[in-house]
Amino acid sequence: MQVISFTSALNPAPQSKVSFTEITRKGLHILSNFESDSADLLKQFESFKEFVDEQVAKLQLCKVGEAYHNFEGGGYTAVVCLAESHLSIHTWPDINYATFDVYLSNHSKDNSPKAEALYSAVLRYFNARVLYENLVDR
Predict the structure, then answer these.
(1) What is the pTM of this model?
(2) What integer is the mean pLDDT of 55-75?
(3) Whole-angstrom Cα distance, residue 125 to residue 55?
(4) Alpha carbons 60 and 82: distance in angstroms, whole number
(5) Is residue 5's pLDDT more than 50?
(6) What is the domain partition of the chain in residue ranges?
(7) Domain 27-137 fold
(8) Which end of the chain is more exposed for a tag (fewer CB within 10 A), N or C?
């Protein structure tokens, strides 16, 4: 079992004087719930994984890990860890439904256009009808 410590992220070194209110480059977190009539794309993750890998390369993001899981009877969940943060999806093909989010931090540069491009590509991939979306600067 691998244990990951978040101590340094939660408790910055004493010499760090930057507060959250001083951070000027916030990241963009996009959350979405959508419907899709492309049931085959919602059933198994394999083609979505290929699509994500293509998008990550195209947008010059840095994938550092991933977890994909197909559910018995259809549907999948996936989380892709990026150096810039993450994306995740959860699908329910029996009701033509999915939830998706992508968060890209802007630590060293503005990645907001990349977050928006990735989100738009996902919507096109699924030929999605958005039921809910929220764009959060954080």
Answers:
(1) 0.82
(2) 97
(3) 11
(4) 11
(5) no
(6) 27-137
(7) S-adenosylmethionine decarboxylase (3.60.90)
(8) N
